Amino acid sequence: MLEKVTIANITQDIADRERAYKEYEKQHEFQDLENYRLLRGKLSPSLYADGLQEFTRTCSQNSGTWLPETVEFKKWADVNNKSRLCFWLQGIPGAGKTILAAKTVKHLQSQGMTVLFAFLSYRDEGKSNPFKVFQSLIFQLLEDQAALRPLLHDVYITNYQKLISDQDFVGDLLGNLLQTSGPTAIVIDGVDEAAESDRSYLVRTLLRLTRSGYNVKLFISSRPDQGVGRELTRSSTELRVQDHNAGDIAELVDTERDNLLSMFREWDADEGIYGQVRRAFDLLKEKSRGMILYAKLMTGLLKGLDNVGDIRQELDTLPDGLEQA
């Protein structure tokens, strides 16, 4: 009888200990979450998620699907390929670099990769300086990997002033957190939109992370830029958007052309205009010259007109270049 009671007591004691440990873990997880929410509210990082949704929503489903199929991209995206750590997507103004960057984020996420990203713009310098970019990347990483959150709280307690003001310190902190994060891609769009004094520093710091053995891949998109080029030319795979996006432009223009012709049929327009419209839209493709934004602006203008005469006039006087458009 004593033996049975003893075994029962031991079993109960083990169960009580396991229950107490789980409760202890739950309390700590709750406290870690509260600490993290407090820090996120205090530091107010820009997470760029709204931009990602906007840029992917405003393009067709097939737009940019060519990029992951290029040899250059496949080599870069291969986590086992350590010789291709940086991908530099170059493009003239209006070529569609931001859309491609957003599509790249979505593509890599669909492959199960941790992706940190930022969309920089000269219109919002507060989000485009290196300190805010590094800070954002840190919080994106912690959103994805909760186990790392206590490390940030420790830094907040011990190095608060550096955490809120020192971009070198925050850049190093990002590197330290990436050491245990597994394969990670960092996608930065619009580096040329940052202040000229910040561009080289931002790229140089991010490149250092890829070379430090943290299993990090870097994707940069920008216009051709001398400062960025000095940092990237020897260490990146380069690809020019305007050499590859003719299919995206053609799809956009052809879709809008067909929509316009359908509208003409509803208006019982003269049959002679159909050939004119087709020729004008073919000319629109030529005048785009790798600038998908030019094609979007012009097709958007045509969609906003409500009579045949105005549409014919616009088609007869297509502007030259993005600036005129």
From TrEMBL:
This is NACHT domain-containing protein. Pfam families: NPHP3_N. InterPro entries: NACHT_NTPase, NPHP3-like_N, P-loop_NTPase. Residues 85-225 form the NACHT domain. It comes from Apiosordaria backusii. Keywords: Repeat.
